[in-house]
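[job 0412] stage=fold_complex status=start
inputs:
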Amino acid sequence: MIGGPLDTGTGDRVADIAIVGAGLVGAALALGCARRGASVVLCDAGEDRFHASAGNFGLVWVQGKGQSAPAYARLSRRSANGWADFARSLGDRHGAPDYAGGGGIKIALSEAELESYTTALARMHNQPDPTDNDTRLIDAHELRELVPAVGPEALGGTFCPHDGHADPLGTLHALHRALARHPRVRVVRARIERAVADGRVAPFVLEHREGRVRASRVVLAAGHGATALAPGLGLDARVRPQRGQIVVTERVPPFLPLACHSVRQSADGTVLLGDSKEDVDFDDGTTPPALHAILSRAVRCFPRLARVRVARSWGALRVLSPDGLPIYQDSTRVPGASLVTCHSGVTLAAAHAGEVADAIVDERLGERYPSFSPARFGSSVAAA
Amino acid sequence: MSGVWRRLDGAAASVDVTVDGRAVKAFADETVATLLLRLGLDHFGPHPKGDAALAPYCLMGTCFGCLCTIDDRPGSQACLEPVIDGLEIVTGDGAPSAEASA
Amino acid sequence: MTRREVRDAVVVGAGPAGLAATAVLAAQGLSVRLIDEQSAVGGQVWRGVITRPADAPPLSGAAEARRAHAAAAASRRAGVDHAAGASVIDARRSGIDGPDGAIEMTWLAARDAGGRVMHDTRARALVIATGAMERPVLFPGATLPGVMGVGAVQSAMKRGGLVPDGPGVVLAGHGPLLQLTLSQLRRLGTAVEAVLDLAPDVSVPGERAALASDLARALRADPALLARGATLLAAGRRTRRYRCVHELRAHGERAIERISFVATGVRRELPCRLLAVHDGVVPNVQITRLLRLEHRWQDGQQAFVPVTDAAGRVSELPIWVAGDGGGIAGAPLATLRGRLAGLDLVRALRGVGASTASASDTVPELDACERRLHRAIDRRLPARRFVDRVYPALPIDRHATPDTIVCRCEAVTLGAIDAAIAAGALGANRVKTFTRCGMGACQGRLCANALTRIVADRLGVAPDAAGALRVRPPLVPTLIGDYLAGDRAVGEPLAGSGHADTGTSPVARGVA
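[job 0412] stage=fold_complex status=done
writing structure:
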């Protein structure tokens, strides 16, 4: 049922949808559902540990997504195409998303890299359901026209017109500001410790240290934090942490008009450099070898960066499913419980606030996204 | 803001440095920061965000308000650098100009 | 090309505590890498003593200068490699925790003919002696040129031989350092326009009684306290003083030109060219935070303090914190704490109960030092508690308005922080995420303490619950070129000797 009265008391009334997790995924879903008329309770544990949204690089990236998964390739593209409207809808005061579209580039620094990009692109293009999303090869000349600051080692690369970038922190802040003032949203600032399907009082009861939340439906969108709650709700949140290390520099006068996959210049002038892919369990630290590799490649792409100072480096833990694709699931064992998890929280933010929120409100999440069902992994989750 | 600071003793200034291209005599025990203060500068560069001022506050290496270019290294903390013969100091570099000079 | 070396111990900070620890370690035959970001040893309290021209009168008295020179000798001892003017970039615990765990420090040497060279030191133990720094005072206009901490005035006097001159010199704040600065300025002939006491008056009867009781205890333990305090207070007697000041504001176009404030109900203005402020000192915890060591909030000092045992050791780790970096206690105690940490470190590296002659030499000395230290602490701690109670940190809102800048590097105002909290940022790091407070060049050195206190105040929670800013490498902004300088392919020999610089001593390794 949609449009129930807002729960302002101690939990007597029942919200339409409870969303557990207030990072980029949960916050976007919550706003989207509320804008479609649902009363939403957003549960924000407020903890800093492994808060993937705070460590994100900020790409709104389409090229290379879903190389053999057309549904993912298309979802990424739809979301990227809707990002400008999504950013505008969040307003522009404190915490602007600072979205910039116009395309993105993956630079090749050697013949071998150029060769591998070419092969991959051909493979995507030649599938019965192509997944290249208008990505094309560019030569050194065109690369220099698009990004004049690129260094002599850059031989060319791939360009996708749908790519862009945004400020993940600004986006998160803007989402939270919008949620704080939305009449159909209540934010509960507590870690949910137990989520139970309780047919007597309300379909779902979510317990935290100082009380409980009641809702007709529940969506887990808590990144690594969903793993503990998922089995009890018949959900399969089989994600693992994959570390990416990132460097951010001091502010630099604008020199980089387009995001270049591992180098992007934010709206305030700082330059972000990435990235790595490491399986290191829950360790969000940094390592000298990875740092060195990131900086080394960055300077090969843009030699001027040698005179720029690193302000900070960090590790962030991607929420990664076995095949890297999202998991969107409606629980069959516990009807009314759903799971939304992905590692591209920025790219998919527009979709989460849009078509995915639609699907949740219509109770058709699993139906509309069959490719993202965990059934694709084969074995089923053991009941709690 | 000249004249806010005066040198305590009357010893001779014997170290040759340049400040923004000008030849200057410095005292052997000065840091770049105290030299610039003595010359009457109350700030050594623009704020990276451009609105607030960037001013030296602690003179001990914790505030990063004394940044300037020392020996062609932008963003040097002037309060940590002793003056030595031949040192080149350029003020006004809160944000580096990452020009195509690399 | 990063230069790599191995040492028994790394000591960070060459103030009284760091020098004392270094002296002990070197005397016991350990190899030490001493890293100090200042270009000359002495830290803050002995700043400028070593570099002072021989004919210039000492600022702090001849006895203090002698102590400083004696301590400075530690940095020149055999076995000590002193990196002056060097910045610690990163600190890592590598491998296993426990007595054999290793510490890795990445640091950038001072500029030399070849530029600043990156170094990696691997050591069996680490002494963190990074001292204290000032707690900034929050009020409108505090970021104007011409507003500084009193510590900056001290620094300019000691290293630079400068003294404020002419009209419009105002001190504002409270605490022993402000009193000391005032007395020094007067002795050097500077006319101080006014002293503004920024704190609320102690008007609650219970507080007065507690103060008196603390003072009595302090005097019983250390009778000389009264004489020292009286001397300091007397220095300010002829200077115009305003009490219980609030709504302090600095005004000016490009730099400070005047200040306004309210005192005894009257709004006043003073022309001002230099405003030196002070609200106590707090431990510099950048490295202890980077290493993710445990900290607890010390209510008396209104600051986070690393958790250590009585010798300064961090639980089972080969990490010691010595001096004010482990909690504010002043310079005399810093030397003793540095010495104690050094001895405890030697004992830990050799293993308690080792049967070698050198180990049994250490234990009685360690015991004697511990006893002396505890006596010294017992004597001085009541005075510290008294000072903390007389000069508690200023309440955040006493002078700060919504447009007051809290984070100087990113120009984040108190209003922006409050807006972020209202939007759901219920902790220091969340506020940072939403506002960029703490993301600038100083990495929160100046704003972290205030941010924790603001969040705690707004949420009505303890500072431990409000959280502290996460510290990430590099500890100072570092040129990308410095990371990559002289890059070679993997596998090429290290610069210079052609083999790894292994500086561990046979003594420390326990070889007979």
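[job 0412] summary: Chain A has three domains: 1-98+163-238+322-384, 104-161, 240-320.
[job 0412] exit 0
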